[in-house]
Write a structure and sequence with these properties.
about 190 residues; alpha+beta; five-stranded mixed beta sheet; about 30% helix
Length: about 190
């Protein structure tokens, strides 16, 4: 099923997802290149809420740009299969080799604002991440390691502690709490 159809079929969990779902569909309907960073205003990203098999722990990375513990994920960079992007990013950012989707269905949708910042000595202007989140699982006993230049640390936290570890209030209150709440339905 194409990404557009998957997003259209998604049953929104709350008002934020309903609003962002509608806007994501509108962006995809424009026909503009959203799957590369050439679109400097908005582009597709994929994130992962990586949980232990018993759903009690969540994997987080201490992200350098945001100076906060956060979920794992990244830019589509031309890939239209965003589940594939999420899996790639988790492996790159954590060193995990054995990570798998709980489901191939979209877990959550978000449109995220990204403030202007420097990356590798180049200024990146403020823009939107049109984000699709997948629920992935892995074994907390498998070794993890940070991705040099991108994050300082990678660690497993109890799921409620993972929310508290973020220094970004909007993510704690609107995104990570929602992702944990959705786990109760799995």
């Amino acid at each position: 099923m194409k990404l557009y159809d998957q997003i259209k079929a998604l049953e929104p969990f709350n008002e934020q997802e309903e609003t962002d779902r509608k806007r994501l569909l509108e962006y995809l309907e424009t026909g503009k290149d959203l799957f590369t960073r050439k679109n400097e205003n908005a582009h597709m990203t994929a994130s992962a809420w990586v949980v232990s098999r018993d759903r009690t722990k969540v994997l987080m990375a201490y992200h350098n740009i945001y100076d906060s513990w956060s979920w794992l994920g990244g830019h589509a960079d031309g890939e239209t299969d965003l589940l594939k992007t999420a899996l790639r990013e988790v492996k790159e950012e954590s060193g995990l080799q054995n990570v798998s989707p709980v489901s191939e269905d979209i877990y959550s949708l978000e449109i995220l604002t990204v403030d202007g910042h420097e990356k590798k000595g180049t200024y990146i202007g403020s823009h939107l991440h049109l984000n699709v989140t997948y629920l992935l699982e892995a074994d907390p006993d498998e070794p993890v390691r940070p991705k040099e230049g991108e994050n300082r640390a990678v660690a497993w936290f109890e799921k409620d502690e993972a929310v508290r570890m973020s220094s970004e209030p909007w993510f704690r209150e609107r995104i990570y709490s929602k992702l944990n709440e959705k786990l109760k339905k799995i």
